[in-house]
Amino acid sequence: MSAHPTGRSAADEALLALASSGQVPQEYLGGSGVAPNTEASEHVLQTWRTADCVCFDVGCTITRADGLDLLAEFMGVKDEVFALTQQAKDGTMNLSETLEEVLRIINCTPDDVRRFVQQHPPEKRLTKGIVNLIKTLQKRGVAVYMISGGFREDIMPIAKYLGVPRENVFANRMNWQWDDETGQPTRLSGFDESQPTAFNMGKIRAISKIREDHPYNTVVMIGDGATDMEAVQSSQGADLFIGYGGVVERPAVAEAAEWFVYDHDELTRALKCSKVAMIGIGPFACAAIHLVVQNIEADDQFDPCLKVWVQDPLDEFEGRSLIDIVNTEHHHPKYLPGVHLGDKVIASSDLEWVASDADVLIFCPPHQHMQSITRRLMGKVKREAVAISLVKGMRVGRDGPQLVSQMIRKNLGIDCSVLMGGNVASEIAKRELSEAVVGANSRETGQLFRKLFQTPYFNVDIVQDVAGAEMCGTLKNIVALAVGIVDGLGCGCNAKAVIMRQGLTEMRKFAKTLYPNVRNETFFESCGLGDLITTCLGGRNHATAEAWTRAWKSGAPKTWTKLEEEILGGQRLQGVATSNEVQEVMRVRGWESTYPLFSTVNRIINGRVEPSQILHFCQANGIQTTNEDDDDTTIIPAARAPRQSPIPNPV
Questions:
Q1: The pTM is what?
Q2: Count of C-beta atoms within a 10 Å radius of residue 435
Q3: How many CB atoms lie within 10 A of CB 182?
Q4: Separation of alpha carbons 284 and 454, rounded Å
Q5: CB of 510 within 8 A of CB of 475?
Q6: b/e for 237-257, b at 16 or more Cβ within 10 A?
Q7: What is the pLDDT of residues 275-311, one digit of tens each?
Q8: In the beta sheet, which residues pair with residue 332?
Q9: Fewest beta carbons less than 10 Å away: which of 86, 201, 212, 251?
Q10: What is the mean pLDDT of residues 197-223?
Q11: Catalytic residues
């Protein structure tokens, strides 16, 4: 507690003097008997949990007493300092003048300060729970600052002990007289008035400077006093003030704070562990689980248990239930055999049970199932939950094309980001160098998902271009089919280079035509060029299209469904479905001639022209199809029917 008989620190007494003279509002000092807000509202909790910057007052918040009070007591002048602050109530001195006079009375030397710090080491001065709170915040990636009307000479040892960087400390600085002969500081001579905290509204000045230097989205101020409460009174200040009464409860602060706590542990508990759920358990979902489990087990921000939804409860492997294998042996024997998914992965076919209590939802089922999945979850997920889609594809309805992220936002009413990149699931499982992009609506959300997925071998970048990243991940599968067809025909690198270049051109043009705000730069990220290269060289769309073309050349053509069973173990081929969906958009809008490669690929995979026509895509508008009388309106949604019948053998 404070050394003063009133229970107020020297800074408080100076503030009281300013209030008496009308320099600060009187209501800062006394309460009206209203009970403090000890129960945080949902909005306050959400602000606290999503803060990327937290600023702490020091005296009576981080430490159990005001540093200037302790220094005055150490120097044997606590009564004189108290008497000065009482005299200051007549309003004849402002804040800086009062502090200047307090330092004159204390009149310490550098040796006095060193002895004071040795006698009052940081670990003996800290309030209960503050070390754990600051460590927890820092572990979550939250920037921690200390802002005080005290002095750096006293505060820096505390900051060092707590692991707060020097540049994150805003406090006053003592000025010293220097001995000309020894070159050493000898006597105190006031303080540096260039610091933000040297003036009234110092906390606002400091936070404004922090915001100017750093792009923080949400800043929270925690403190015990009226000057801390001021931090939210400017648009350049904090977004939330949390009052702390663990050392001294100031009635006006307790009443005005949106949240008032008496224990730092309460703030730590409120940060909570976010629960994560995975919807889907295909090959890439398994690779993503492998990444996510590493991070949630190591980060207190997340619950270490990961619920996973398995669509088919009867799915078996060698006569055993797939769900039982995942839950007992912790691997997926069909898609990533032998790759450990994590001891705390819990697989279930109960979609609502998996998703209902999740704070973070990861979607990775086949894209054609997303509409039914999100409809089943309508009204069943947390309102404050966030989602990320790993799904590559789009839905075409009566109201036009709809990306999966848009579907999730519309049906579930929650924010949705995307993770896209050039990755093969088996290579991620082998911990080979890989990368991806998180497309997010805010940097803050992007950073959350980066923490979930990034590992030493899996790099994650953030772009604030959800539609651009998702369109790249969707459209590249069409190009992969084209390259697979070229390889199946036995063509060389020149032809593949032509197809890939044209494919990237049409991807960019189609995406920007549908979504004009898509950024050009996105197409050169991992989700664009990187994903295109990977998919065209080693993806399943390429491999299946190559096998389909070789079967046609051999005179024993196979259907896409047959090849899905042989090559993909029964999984659906995303490129064929996406091509049909994109073709429907182009047909309705009259764009087919504008995208000759996309149009040619769609005609080939649906048996309307021979695979060799891929080499003549530039003349696509003049290609005579093998089914001239077919009505193109049948391409969507009944795309599966024509795929069942192989195209005629080459003559």
A1: 0.68
A2: 18
A3: 8
A4: 15
A5: yes
A6: bbbbbbbbbbbbebebbbbbb
A7: 999 999 999 999 999 999 999 998 878 999 999 999 9
A8: 336
A9: 212
A10: 90
A11: 476
